[in-house]
Amino acid sequence: MSILKPWAWRTSAARRRLRLSLEGTLVYAVGDVHGCYDELLALEAMIEADAAFHSGHKVIVMLGDYVDRGPASSGVLEHLIAPPPPGFERICLTGNHEVALLDYCEGRLPRADWLSLGADATLASYGVNLDYLGQTYRSSGKVDAEIRKLIPAQHLRFLRDLPVMVETERFIFVHAGIRPGIDLDEQKDVDLIQIRSDFLDYPHGLKQWVIHGHTPVAAAVPRGRKLNIDTGAFHTGRLTAVRIWRGKGHVIST
Questions:
Q1: Rg (CA), the chain
Q2: How large is the angle between the packed helices 96-105 and 153-160, nearest 10 degrees?
Q3: Going along 67-215, which residue ranges are E strands?
Q4: DSSP class of residue 34?
Q5: Confidence bin at 138 (pLDDT 50/70/90)
Q6: Homologous superfamily of 25-93+162-253
Q7: What digits encode the pLDDT tens for the residues 91-122?
Q8: Contact of 217 with 228, CB cutoff 8 Å
Q9: Cross-strand pairs, 19
């Protein structure tokens, strides 16, 4: 939800971008989860029921921001690392909050800056008691070291490997949006996971539909070939997905 500062983009390598064919494929894109594990399970159950008509290839594309704000970030990551619902493939993209968590754990982001993004809820989900650690260790560096021990290596590997975009002939799936007027091959990761007004307020038509999250909206309503499906699950309880089948979309929310 929050815009990250420039320090958050000092990761060492650009993330993968995927190109897929949607011919014969039923796709569900899911907006920002932000630690809302129960809502994610409920939405997946709705997706499974909705997809019962289709016996072919089915894909769930998660649009990023799985952590922070809500109560169960560690549980959400554990769930996404596990196999998807039966009969589905799942692709998880990165959001700015995944980058922030990883940057903190790898020493690129100060703890105070990560906490400003809602990471206190993430730490609590890993069993971290910040008050206790602060009283036990006088050194801030020692507190950081103890925190980092409690975040599983498997979760960090998952975060490092997340791609940043899925491109198809008619649709782009990405966390925040794209920079208009720039070829997709030239898009910067920083824009794909944190752009706001330069994308949201762009008045002209886009070549492809962009399915994204990042900036909470009251309802998922198309705007100029942009569909924002971040409905602020951590404070509204509404986690939203869009089903895409044969070029048409249908919105599903908890």
A1: 18
A2: 130
A3: 89-92, 165-167, 171-174, 209-212
A4: T
A5: confident
A6: Metallo-dependent phosphatases (3.60.21.10)
A7: 999 999 999 999 999 999 999 999 999 999 99
A8: yes
A9: 167
